[in-house]
Amino acid sequence: LIRRTLLAVAAAATCVAAFAPAIAQAQDIKPRIIRFGYGLNEQSNQGRAAKVFVDEVNKRSGGKMKVRAIGAAALGPDTQMQQALIGGAQEMMVGSTATLVGITKEMALWDTPFLFNNVKEADAVLDGPIGQKVMDKLQEKGLVGLVYWENGFRNLTNSKRPVTKMEDLNGIKLRVMQNNVYLDSFKMLGANAIPLPFSELFSALETNTVDGQENPFNTVLSSKFYEVQKYLSITNHVYSPWIVTVSKKWWDGLSKDEQKVLRDAAVASRDFERKDTREEAAKALADLKAKGMQINELPAAEAARMRDKLTHVNAGIGTQVGMDLWNETQAALAKLRSG
Ligand code: TF8
Predict the structure, then answer these.
(1) ipTM for the complex?
(2) Do residues 289 and 295 make contact, with C-beta atoms less than 8 angstroms apart?
(3) Ranges of each domain in the chain
(4) Predicted local confidence at residue 130, as pLDDT
(5) Facing residues of 152 across strands?
(6) What is the β-pairing status of strands 32-37 and 65-70?
(7) Are 230 and 172 in contact (CB under 8 A)?
(8) In the chain, what is the straight-line distance between the N-terminal and C-terminal CA atoms, in Å?
(9) Cα 206 to middle of ligand 1, angstroms
(10) Ligand 1 in contact with 95 (CB < 6 A)?
(11) pLDDT-derived band of residue 16, with 50, 70 and 90 as boundaries?
């Protein structure tokens, strides 16, 4: 009897082992085509991370879920893609949080000048409860946020003159993102701020429709702005996140397993993207110099003057995002800074 039981147990074990792969494959995953739009070109940090997302989704879904990454704003600028996601005409995208402010006002939190002192603070807040809370606000508007990628600290370029003090911005036609905080901030500094979608920026610079723009070093490099901009002034005036979003209409029709594939792949893409972006940013200044850009830092006193001036927009941001969220963020940062 004992022998028979043992045999049965052994047989059962073999059975389980034999069926284990079948069980894993029995995840509820259907063949899916996912259009994933983005605004920069394929050779940018955004493009490289999009490729990682494609591979991760492929791997994690056993090849059933196929992401078509479509860059260079071929599906439209950020704001147009956001509407396509909300309406269910496009599945996914990555873009600036700043262009989402018109849809979800809490996103303006990330536009606060000098909010983060370094990327460690940015990661902690974006990946923590505050970042999640802001991301969850998208759901009421028909979007599901998955992760934040790093766009990076923004710096100023223009074709007129080195900006070494606030007054140098007077009369400079400066393209800003389509967002009231950016508009107010640069008006406050004396620039002639003009909102434009990113997809129109290169030609606007080339034709002198605008004189300058502000973006992280990585983008100045990958979008070849050095071809049409002579001066780069290191201002680090704000840390800019990107956010990976999904059409809620489409997301709600996915199985739990399919949603998990996308979530896990998004996290993997984020970890790659931040590392890649930081490595590129560390070398970018030397590259931009080699391309002929004239680079200047701001004297500490002038940087402080600009910073002071910019803090005038903070009260408005607090009201816009809600004082609870604003205070919670300030408290979280104070805690991070106290070590
Ligand atoms: C900008 C942003 C861009 C994003 C991107 C196209 O200046 O920094 O990186 O909008 O999604 O518009």
Answers:
(1) 0.98
(2) yes
(3) 28-337
(4) 98
(5) 240
(6) parallel
(7) no
(8) 66
(9) 18
(10) yes
(11) very low
| pLDDT tens string 287-332 | 999 999 999 999 999 999 999 999 899 999 999 999 999 999 999 9
- Ligand 1 atom with the shortest distance to the CA of 77: 6
Decide whether any atom of ligand 1 lies within 6 Å of the 215 Cβ: yes
What is the distance in A from the centroid of ligand 1 to the CA of 240?
Answer: 9
3-state secondary structure of 143: strand
Q: Cα-atom radius of gyration of the chain, to the nearest Å? A: 23
Residue type, 251: W
Mean local confidence (pLDDT), 213-236: 98
Phi, psi torsion values for 172, nearest 5 degrees: -80, 125
What is the full DSSP assignment across 232-284? Answer: EEE----EEEEEEEEEHHHHTTS-HHHHHHHHHHHHHHHHHHHHHHHHHHHHH
* SS3 category, 222: helix
39 within ligand 1 shell (Cβ under 6 A): yes
Centroid of ligand 1 to alpha carbon of 96 (angstroms) = 5
Tell me the CA distances in angstroms from 172 to 167, 168, 178, 193, one per residue in order: 10, 8, 18, 8
Query: Into which CATH architecture does domain 28-337 fall?
Result: 3-Layer(aba) Sandwich (3.40)
* Of the candidates 203, 202, 180, 183, the residue with the CA atom closest to the CA atom of residue 192: 183
Alpha helices (H) in 41-97, listed in sequence order: 45-60, 78-87
217 Cβ inside 6 Å of ligand 1: no
For a mutational test of ligand 1's pocket, the pick from 48, 151, 213, i.e. the residue with the most ligand atoms closer than 8 A to its C-beta, is 151
Q: Is the beta carbon of 197 within 6 A of some atom in ligand 1?
A: no
pLDDT digit string, tens, across residues 256-282: 999 999 999 999 999 999 999 999 999
> Residue 113 has what DSSP assignment?
T
83 CA from centroid of ligand 1 (Å) = 16
Task: Tell me phi and psi for residue 233, to 5 degrees.
Answer: -110, 125
Q: Which of 38, 110, 198 to mutate to test the pocket of ligand 1 (most atoms within 8 A of CB)?
A: 198
Of the candidates 302, 319, 111, which has an alpha carbon nearest to the alpha carbon of residue 189? 302
